[in-house]
Amino acid sequence: MKKQTLEQYVRAAHTKQTADNYLYVISNFLSIHPDALKFQYMDLVQYFDQLTIRYPKVATRTRMLAAIKKYYDFLLHTGRRIDHPCRKLIIKRKKTAIQTQDLFSMNELQLLYTRPNRYKNLDVRDRVLFSFLLQQALSSHELAELNITNIDLDKGEVHIKASAKISGRILPLDVSQIALLIRYLNETRPAMIKAKTSKLIISKAGGGMSVDSIHAVFEPLRMLFPGRTMNPERIRMSVISYWLNDRKMPVEQVMELSGLKWASSVMQYKKIDIAEQSKLINRFHPLR
């Protein structure tokens, strides 16, 4: 029995017009990328990112993606691959880029640790808050939802619950955090708590901190950065930008650390390289 060809596979599942369109897109794709058999998720993200210049309409690129997905469906069907690199890839409308120049550098964020609190217990608690923001880029909602059971000091991990917008994840604790958390859990938290709660972060009133009370911690810190927005959200954004632009982490790693669900959400933080952008534009629209 003859093996099914790509064309036979596509035509068996679609109308003549759709099959013709899919095969045309796949043929062009393979002529540009003969190594497409080995492509991974980010290779395809970059490919479609480049197509944005030539095909600005989302609908056009969505149809092209459907064709490329069919190609990888075929590879799975015939056993030439055991995974599908773009099954979860979708084309979304371009998001507005984050204004990274308005974010804080890591050196600036370290200044948060230098502002003393006249209340010893609050000083330790605030350092715990700051550490989760600067080391793991947690959101204020994630901070408010942290329970003592989410901290595993033996493994050096913090377990973050999933929310509607952010993926759940298990993140390593920094060495400096472990010592701080041991002190907080053994001394500071028991001294502050006034009502039974499993919440990790305790308010001045003795219960679990709400999102609003976490934001209130940053009100007096604005004097460190006059004229600039200082809150947990801006700190999270700054740390994500630091991972991507300063530490040069791969997009997939930033997604895993931050809980952002889409590569496009991470790419909003990418600082624009004017020279590289011009090169890309000239590649698809040469000035001749």
Write a structural description:
This protein is mainly alpha-helical. It is built from 13 helices and 3 strands; from the N terminus they run H-H-H-H-H-H-H-E-E-E-H-H-H-H-H-H. It has helices spanning 6-13, 16-32, 41-54, 58-77, 106-109, 120-136, 140-145, 175-192, 211-217, 232-246, 251-258, 263-267, 274-284, and strands at 151-152, 157-160, 169-172. A 3-stranded antiparallel beta sheet has the order 1-2-3, with no helix packed on it. Helix 1 (6-13) packs antiparallel against helix 2 (16-32), helix 6 (120-136) runs antiparallel to helix 8 and helix 6 (120-136) packs across helix 10 (232-246). The longest helix is centred in the N-terminal third of the chain and has 20 residues, at 58-77. The radius of gyration is 24 Å and the shape is elongated. Mean pLDDT is 88; it is low at 280-288.
Structural class: mainly alpha
The sequence of SSEs as H and E is HHHHHHHEEEHHHHHH
CATH homologous superfamily placement of the largest domain: Intergrase catalytic core
> Gyration radius, to the nearest Å?
24 Å
- The span between the termini is 52 Å
Number of strands: 3
Helix share bin: 40-55%
Question: Average pLDDT, to the nearest integer?
Answer: 88
The number of domains is 2
Shape: elongated
Biggest sheet, strands in spatial order? Answer: 1-2-3
CATH level-1 class of the largest domain: Mainly Alpha
Q: CATH fold name of the largest domain, please?
A: hpI Integrase, Chain A
Tally of helical segments:
13
Task: Give a summary of the structure in a few sentences.
The protein has 13 helices and 3 strands.
